[in-house]
Amino acid sequence: MKRLLLPLFTAFAVAAQAQAPQPPEIAARNFVLIDLTTHKTLAEREADVPQDPASLTKLMTAYVVFGALRDRKLTLEQTLPVSRRAWDERKGDPSLMFIDTTMTPKVDELLRGLIIQSGNDAAVALAEGVAGTVENFVQLMNRQAQAWGLKHTEFRNVTGMTEPGHKSSARDLAVTAAHIITDFPDYYGYYSQRDYTFNKIRQDNRNLLLRRDPTVDGMKTGYTDAAGYCLVASANRDFPNGKRRLLSVVMGTASKEARASESQKLLNWGYTAFDAVKIFDAGKAIANVPVWKGTAKEAQLGAADAVYVAVPHGDAGKLQTQVERTDPLVAPLNKGQRVGTLRVATTAGTPVAEVPLIVQEAVPGAGLLGRAWDSLRLWIK
User: Fold this and answer.
1) Is 55 a catalytic residue?
2) Residue 73 among known ligand-binding residues
3) Of 11, 117, 237, 248, which one is least surrounded by beta carbons within 10 A?
4) How many angstroms separate the CA atoms of 273 and 330, rounded?
5) What is the pLDDT of residues 203-250, one digit of tens each?
6) Is the pTM of this model over 0.70?
7) Any signal peptide, and if so, which residues (predicted)?
8) Contact in structure between 329 and 299 (CB atoms under 8 Å)
């Protein structure tokens, strides 16, 4: 593996290893704050401890429904029947869309009921519409969790009602929320809607931050006696180098107000304590490296997307990068093929990020004579 040091800026101040900014005191049992622009966890406490997720469960419920829409297994305008099981959810449960067995709501209406009103009845109706039964749908939820490698999540229902074995962690819920944002941007708008009226019953979105912070555009609240008050919140703020999205998860707070205020505290701290620095543009060659046995003598290596890193505020000028790549690099090379890693660290040696490096343009293999000549040169080398 060959290493190549690439300075990011013309001048560096050699500094002692900086201490990571310490988050404010957060009155929550578990929390995590993630910078989705740089893919960095900024703060956490017991983020991998399984907990009762309450209605945060409905993030995965919605994700599976979005997948069914993507795969054309149903459409937003399609109507679904309301089973007795869905109607029975109203017994003693305040989280309802208030559908009944005489109705055939559209998928779009049920999604609004699920996301904005946190309707357990809407969750059941959607699950049955996608998978035939709630039990089949729960299997799809667990299968998706396993595909993402969520080790602290196991679903037993689609609503989040407390049930033995039904669990998730703050980090696992953050992963689920992030996938909704990145995989289904066309449906993410549901999470920013402040209220929804169905069957002449108007209900406010329980995410109080939607009315307090104009940069907050989602996502989901939850509450049970076992879980306490929980909130997944996402904000997208403008900065000179582009937009920057942070995602917070707080679990086990004491009240509706507390889950909102503690989430706001985390988000505000994340934006002020850390800077997002763009070090390479999308599609830009980060390194030109020699290629053997190819039609070209060099290959351009770069990242799949623009490379952003999160650093403590004021430390943007204390970064350096190192390219680690396969050596020798032998053609043929396919476009998008991973052949190395870009490591970003402070000048004091503190790791900041690792980014896969891929081939920007394909390099076909050379002809027989070219391959033979390079084989000889490699042997001599």
Assistant:
1) yes
2) no
3) 11
4) 44
5) 999 999 999 999 999 999 999 999 999 999 999 999 887 899 999 999
6) yes
7) 1-20
8) yes
